[in-house]
Specification:
The protein is mainly beta.
Length: about 725
C-alpha cells in the first residue's frame, strides 16, 4: 500500500459533466466537483453555501406559474412585476403595490419580450396587441394600455417591403428592442423574418419619409426560414436571434442605422436561438440555443464573431430552460430556471477565471427568476411552487445576500421569515436608591420606618436584608399611610412575625430607569416588549439578563429587578436588544411543515409550524425560521484509474462556518465538531481555519470526499486535502 495526498485548492469550475470523469489530464478535473448542490463559487474560488429566501407574498393565481420581470424607475423606485393570467402584480420594497388588468393569458407570459425606456415598459407578444406599462409621478402611479403604433396608411413604391401596421391581428410584434434612439420590432406572424425600425427618437412612429430619421423595414435574407425570436442592443449593433442563426444589424459610419445609407446585416453565428430573450452580460449577449440545453454568449473581436458555449464543462446542467436572469453584485452570476423546477446557477468571472455551475434546489419547484438592484447586493427574486401541508401553493420570494459578515444575520432557510428585534445603545441608566430601614412594627398593618423615604400611597416597594423579621425579605408590597419617615405595608399583618432586630433596605419598583438613544416608536418597541441588556459599565449585574419594558415614554422605560438593592452605580455604556421567546405567527404560512430555526447565529431545534406561536428555548434577538435545504459538495474520484483505495483523513480549510458533515459518501458522513461540546453547533462563534477529520472509509475503486451542510448555518469551503491509502494500481 502506498499513501497519496490529493488536494483541491479551489472550486472555480463547479459541477463538471459526467463525461469529464476520465479527464485526469486536465487541470479542470482537479478544480471541479461531481456534485455541487446549493453551493456557489465565489470570485476567490471558494465554495459558499447559498443564502435562503424570504416569503414576500403568495401569488394571486395559485393554479398557474407566473413570470417575474424587473423594472427600475430610479434609485428609489425598484419594482418586481409578476405577470400572470390577464394580470400584472407590482411589488416594491418587499410589499405589494397594486394590480393591473392585462390581456395575455397564463400560457403566454413566458413568451413576452420586453424593453424598458425611461419610465415605460413595452411588452410584446405575437398574439396580443403590444402593451405599455407606465410608472409615473413622484407618487408612482401605474397604468397599462395598448401601444398605438403610427405607420403609413399607403406605402410609397420602393419604400416598405412589408407593412408596419402593428395594431392588427397577425401583425403584432413578437419581440422588440431599443437601439440608437429607435424602437425595433420584429418577427410577427405575417412576416416572421422582418425587422422594423421606428423614426429616430419616436419609439411608436413607424412612418416612412425617406430621411435619415425615417422609419424603415428590413427582411432577413437567407436560404431557410429564420423567424425572429428576439432582439437586443449591443455596442456593435442590433443583435438578432432567429430560429436558425444569429445576426447583427450594424450601424453605419455615423453611428446610426438609416434608410438613406445601405444597411449592413451579417449572419454572425449559425447556432439558432430559442424564444428566451437575449440578456446583456458584461458587454456580451447571453442567449439560449434552440433546443433549450445550451447557453451561449455572443461577442465580437477584431477578427471574428464569437458565440462560445458556457456549458461545455457541464453539458448535463441545462435542460428545458424556462427563464434566465443576471446578477452582477456581489459577483457575476447567471440564474437559469429549468422546467424540472431547479435552477442552474453559473458563477462567471473572466478576471479570476471562474466558470462554475451549481445546482440550486429547494423544497419545491422554481418557476421564474428576476433581479433588481438591492441595498448591498443585487436582489434575486423567484416564484416557487411548494407543497404546504397537503396543498400546492405558489409563492413570491427573494434571496437574502450572499455576503454575510454578521453571523446572526446569515439566513439559510427557504420561504422563511427573519425576525430582527433590533438594538440600541443606552443613553442614561438610573437605579433607584434603596432607603435604609430602621424599624418594622409587629402590627396589622406593619409600619416601616425609613427616614425621608419619599414614597407615596399606592407605590410598589421591595424589601430585603431585614434582620429578625425575615418574613418580609425578598417581597413586594404596596405603600399605604405614607408619612415623612414611615409607611404601612398594605395588607401585611406582622403581628405573628419575628421581631425586627436591625437593618434592611427598601426600594421603589420598577426600580431601574433607562433612556435610549433612539425613539422607542422608531425601534418598534412597545409595552411588554422584552429587552436583553449587555455591555453595561458599573451596574454589571444587569448584563446578559432579559427584562420586560414598562412605563414607556418617548425614549424612556422602566424595568424591575428584585435584587436591585445590591446593585452598583451605573457608570457608562450598555446595549439593548429586543428579544423574543417565541415565533408568533411569522411562520404561520408554513403551518404543518417542519421548520428549521436559527437564533442569534446558532442552531435551534426544529419544530412544526402552527398558525399561532412557536415557542423557543430562550430569548433571542435575531431569528431565522423556514424550510431547511441541504448543500452537498462531492469531489471527483480521488483515485481514478489507479486501483482500490481508502480515505483515512481529510483536512478542510473553512471560512466562517458552522455545522455540517464530512465523509466518503453522504450516507456515511459524520458530524463536524468545531467545538469540544457534543452539540454540532453548540458554539455561537463560526469557525475559520483548518479542520481535520478522521474518515477510515472502506476500500473502494471509487473514492470521493463529501462535504455536506445539513443545518441552516453558514459554510464556506476554501480548500481540502485528504490522506488516501492506495492498494494496487
Amino acid at each position: 500500500m502506498r499513501i497519496q495526498h490529493p488536494k483541491q485548492n479551489n472550486f472555480r469550475y463547479g459541477e463538471l459533466s459526467p463525461t469529464y470523469a476520465g479527464r485526469t489530464d486536465s487541470s479542470v478535473y482537479y478544480q471541479g466537483v461531481e456534485t455541487y448542490k446549493n453551493f456557489v463559487t465565489r470570485l476567490s474560488g471558494g465554495a459558499t453555501f447559498r443564502p435562503g429566501t424570504i416569503l414576500c407574498a403568495w401569488t394571486n393565481d395559485q393554479s398557474n406559474p407566473t413570470r417575474l420581470i424587473p423594472f427600475v424607475k430610479d434609485a428609489d423606485n425598484k419594482f418586481i412585476l409578476e405577470f400572470g393570467d390577464e394580470e400584472v402584480s407590482i411589488y416594491k420594497d418587499h410589499a405589494h403595490v397594486t394590480d393591473l388588468t392585462a390581456t395575455w393569458g397564463v400560457a403566454d407570459v413566458f413568451d413576452i419580450k420586453y424593453v424598458q425606456i425611461e419610465n415605460k415598459l413595452y411588452c410584446a407578444h405575437k398574439d396580443y396587441p403590444t402593451q405599455l406599462l407606465t410608472c409615473a409621478g413622484t407618487s408612482v402611479t401605474w397604468t397599462i394600455s395598448a401601444v398605438v403604433w403610427t405607420s403609413n396608411t399607403a406605402l410609397a413604391s420602393g419604400a416598405f417591403v412589408h407593412s408596419s401596421a402593428f395594431n392588427v391581428t397577425d401583425n403584432y410584434p413578437t419581440c422588440l428592442a431599443y437601439h440608437c434612439s429607435r424602437m425595433y420590432v420584429g418577427g410577427n406572424t405575417t412576416y416572421p423574418q422582418d425587422i422594423w425600425g421606428s423614426k429616430l427618437g419616436e419609439v411608436s412612429n413607424f412612418t416612412y419619409d425617406a430621411s435619415d430619421g425615417g422609419a424603415f423595414n428590413y427582411i432577413l435574407a437567407s436560404r431557410d426560414c429564420r423567424q425572429v425570436q428576439w432582439l437586443e442592443s449591443h455596442p456593435s449593433g442590433l443583435m438578432v436571434g432567429t430560429l436558425l442563426g444569429e445576426g447583427l444589424l450594424m450601424d453605419n459610419v455615423d453611428g446610426y442605422i438609416t434608410p438613406a445609407n445601405p444597411m449592413k446585416f451579417r449572419w454572425v453565428t449559425e447556432f439558432g436561438s430559442s424564444k428566451i430573450q437575449g440578456v446583456p452580460f458584461d458587454g456580451r449577449i447571453l442567449f439560449v440555443q434552440e433546443g433549450n440545453r445550451i447557453l451561449r454568449e455572443y461577442y465580437p473581436t477584431q477578427d471574428a464573431y464569437n458565440s462560445p458555449t458556457m456549458t461545455y464543462l457541464a453539458e448535463h446542467i441545462l435542460k428545458d430552460v424556462v427563464d434566465i436572469a443576471v446578477q452582477r453584485e456581489p459577483w457575476p452570476m447567471i440564474w437559469v430556471v429549468k422546467d424540472d423546477g431547479t435552477i442552474a446557477l453559473l458563477s462567471r468571472s473572466r478576471e479570476t477565471e471562474v466558470m462554475a455551475w451549481s445546482d440550486i434546489v429547494t423544497n419545491g419547484e422554481f418557476e421564474s427568476v428576476a433581479v433588481i438592484p438591492g441595498d448591498e447586493e443585487d436582489e434575486v427574486w423567484v416564484t416557487v411552487k411548494r407543497t404546504v401541508g397537503t396543498n400546492d401553493k405558489r409563492s413570491l420570494e427573494y434571496f437574502k445576500p450572499f455576503i454575510c459578515d454578521s453571523q446572526p444575520e446569515c439566513h439559510h432557510v427557504d420561504c422563511g421569515a427573519y425576525i430582527d428585534g433590533g438594538s440600541d445603545t443606552i443613553s442614561t441608566l438610573t437605579v433607584n436608591t434603596p432607603k435604609t430601614i430602621t424599624d418594622i412594627t409587629r402590627a396589622n398593618p406593619a409600619v416601616v420606618t425609613a427616614s425621608g423615604h419619599g414614597f407615596s400611597n399606592g407605590d410598589t416597594v421591595y424589601i430585603d436584608d431585614v434582620g429578625g423579621m425575615a418574613e418580609v425579605n425578598e417581597r413586594h408590597f404596596t405603600v399605604a399611610g405614607a408619612a415623612t419617615d414611615t409607611f404601612q405595608l398594605n395588607g401585611e399583618d406582622s403581628t405573628l412575625h419575628t421581631t425586627y432586630t436591625s437593618g434592611g433596605e427598601v426600594v421603589e419598583t420598577p426600580n431601574i430607569y433607562i433612556e435610549t438613544t433612539t425613539a422607542l416608536a422608531t425601534l418598534g418597541w412597545g409595552l411588554g416588549s422584552y429587552v436583553r441588556i449587555t455591555g453595561v459599565g458599573g451596574t454589571t449585574e444587569l448584563n446578559s439578563r432579559v427584562f420586560p419594558m414598562t412605563d414607556l415614554g418617548t425614549t424612556t422605560f422602566l424595568i424591575d429587578t428584585s435584587d436591585v438593592i445590591h446593585y452598583t452605580t451605573w457608570t457608562s455604556g450598555g446595549t439593548l436588544e429586543r428579544v423574543y421567546s417565541s415565533v408568533s405567527g411569522d411562520v404561520a404560512h408554513l403551518a404543518g411543515e417542519v421548520v428549521a430555526i436559527t437564533v442569534d447565529g446558532a442552531h435551534h431545534a426544529s419544530g412544526t409550524a402552527v398558525c399561532t406561536a412557536m415557542s423557543l428555548d430562550g430569548y433571542y434577538c435575531k431569528i431565522h425560521a423556514g424550510l431547511q435545504y441541504d448543500g452537498v459538495i462531492e469531489s471527483m474520484n480521488l483515485n481514478p484509474l489507479l486501483g482500490n483505495s481508502r480515505l483515512n483523513k481529510a483536512q478542510i480549510r473553512f471560512y466562517q462556518s458552522l455545522g455540517g458533515k464530512i465523509g466518503a459518501s453522504e450516507s456515511t458522513a459524520e458530524d463536524i465538531i468545531f467545538t469540544t461540546g457534543s452539540d454540532v453547533a453548540s458554539t455561537a462563534e463560526w469557525y475559520t481555519g483548518d479542520y481535520t477529520h478522521e474518515i477510515n472509509d472502506q476500500i473502494e475503486t471509487d473514492t470521493r470526499l463529501v462535504i455536506k451542510q445539513d443545518q441552516s448555518l453558514p459554510m464556506t469551503v476554501l480548500a481540502y486535502a485528504v490522506r488516501e491509502g492506495v492498494h494496487g494500481g
